[in-house]
Amino acid sequence: MAGPDAVLVMAWVGAFLGPFICALLIRRLLRGRRIIFAWSLAAVAAVGWILGVWAFFVEPATLTVRRVTVESAKWRGPPLRIGIISDTHVAAPHTDVARIERVVARMNAERPDIVMLLGDYAGGHEPAAVRATPERSEILRGVEAFGALEAPLGVHGVLGNHDSWFDDVAVSTALTRANVRVLENRAERIARPGGAFWVAGLADMHSPRQSPTVSGTLSDVSDAASVIVLTHWPDPFVDVPDRVALTLAGHTHCGQVNLPFLGRLVHASRMSERWACGLYGEGGRKLFVTGGVGVSILPVRFRAPPEIVILTLRAAPAVAARTAPR
Known about the structure:
This protein is an alpha/beta fold. It is built from seven helices and 14 strands.
């Protein structure tokens, strides 16, 4: 049994046995007339049990639709509604093919103009060669479930580190079968009424074939149309130039556990502490980091609920006023 699955089994055991063990301890304390201590222990145990059940079983199974509006001085043309899905981690705890199908249906109900997939479709850390056939099949079927996504401007995606560890070629092929435009260090021009724009996707930082290169990818952009950069990791944002309207990233899971007062104790990469979750603006540049859907390492989420995102990208007011028809 893999590590996260073993932890989930222990959590189930604790969820069932915890109340009985606490009841026995409290009963013994009450017999010894330690009433205040007994009821204090009961209160602490009850709170701990509720929080544990929430973090291990309830919150990871939820799905939030986060709605964000970003105004960018580098965006031209009418607003764009972008659907964002990241870090599904199929075959990890809490995520199977049926859940991906529900995520897809929920995204379709939002009717985005375009959908961006930000990587880590595979759960676990092992390469495909050492996994059982049913698990390999489940991961690839989860990827192919994206074929049901509906967006008039298409579905575009990049790969993540778990995909590189699993089998980046197999995942990329499954995405292509699902009509997802896989962008690894290349950009594509998207035509639409009101003005075209570019989607530039970076390779995964753990890719066995190529490293992410912002400058090389943006060299594909051959005109002055607006650019959206896709990257699994937020780290490459340090190299994104001012001419990019928006960078989208995943990978962080918003810390996966976000404790009151203490905050996020674990960061998924060097720059994930700086850009952990949500919208950031630095010198006019815009970055949005989504917490994604699945879990990794531990089968837990606490104050970092699974999410898909509907992000409306629009021109900053001053830009919109200059470009409005007269």
